[in-house]
Amino acid sequence: MPPDWQLSVWITSLVDNWSVLDEVGKVLASNYFAPKVAAIILVCLWFGTRNYARREYNQKVIVGVAVGTALGFIVAESLCLIQDQTGDFWNRPYLNHDEAKFAMEKLYFPLPDSSFPSNAMCGLAAIATGIGFADRRAAIAVWILVALWAFGRMYVGVHYPVDIAGGILIGATCALIGRYAVLRFDHTLSWLLAKARMFYMA
Amino acid sequence: MVWESILLVFLLGLGTFQVIASWADFKGISFFRHRIVGYVFGVVLIIGAFAWFFIAVKVGEGGPKGQHDDQALSTLIGGGLALLLTGFLPSIIKYRSYRKHHENADSSEGIEVFKQMTLLQAIHHRSNTLGKDK
Questions:
Q1: With the C-alpha atoms ordered B31, B37, B43, B44, is the resulting torsion angle positive or negative?
Q2: For residue A157, what pLDDT is reported?
């Protein structure tokens, strides 16, 4: 049992008290709100930057974000696979606590993989960290999405806070590696963006 | 669930591209003459798409299959369709208004050309330029 299990029990015990909060929690926990809004922000940065030179810089940053996010997912999935192999499986809250089980059954659905780390947080934290190099306001907006999605996931009983923290840490670290990789291959990236411009994609 | 997800991405993409067209003054991919109309249309489409999806579609019912497996597919199909419509629809509805303008256009690169011409005009303009070079 993770050390922060009481916090998870407290959050999931809020379910069924306010129907509005339940609906909001369901929306926030789903894969259709936070990732889609983050994608809109990324598309806006890619195509919508007014200044030509700044746009190319932002596009390079976004490629770094993509590299970092992919790397983050690989690390998170690998950790889940290792847990599968060793049998030292980190159970989700709904398997350990009645409050979380009730929350999951009412608002969400069971997930088959390990609770730690949160893949969702890993991906979104990588985006939030990465686009901080391009636009601070966009980064703040995505960090707010991270917080909302994290709350949603804990509210419906599929993650402990430590899963969220682990996912964010992995995602942020991988985003920095992605940023470094982009700086390292700047010339190749400039060439690729020139090719993308031929197809009106950059 | 997959079809609803594709439609959601399509509507979000369409709305986002119209907001971008208004913001960056890309007249060639805007559906409208006035920028303010593009902003309003884009924002209403984005908010409306989310509202429709979360009210009409039971997001929890599909289970992990409904939420995870269709993400890449819906992004690819919905986003691709939104991109195609954003590129080609203004080429058709703005054909006359931009017909003379694009003949004098400079040789901007990439999406920068949409400040002066539509997608089909840009393709036509480039093929003409390449023909003259040869």
A1: negative
A2: 94
Q: Rounded CA gap, B74 and B12, in Å?
A: 12
User: B28 contacts in A (CB within 8 Å)?
Assistant: none
Residue A132 belongs to what domain range?
Answer: 18-198
Domain residue ranges in chain B? 2-133
What are the helix (H) ranges across B24-134? 35-56, 63-64, 70-93, 95-99, 119-133
- Separation of alpha carbons A153 and B117, rounded Å: 45
Note whether residue A134 is domain-resident.
yes
* Residue B45 touches chain A, beta carbons under 8 Å: no
The ipTM (two decimal places) reads: 0.90
Chain A residues inside the 8 Å CB shell of B16:
40, 43-44
A56's enclosing H/E stretch is: helix A52-86
Inter-chain contact A39–B75, Cβ cutoff 8 Å? yes
Q: pTM value? A: 0.91
Domain harbouring A63, CATH code: 1.20.144
State residue A5's pLDDT score: 85
* B68-126 per-position pLDDT tens digit: 667 888 889 999 999 999 999 999 988 776 655 555 555 578 999 999 899 999 998 88
Mean per-residue pLDDT of chain A:
93
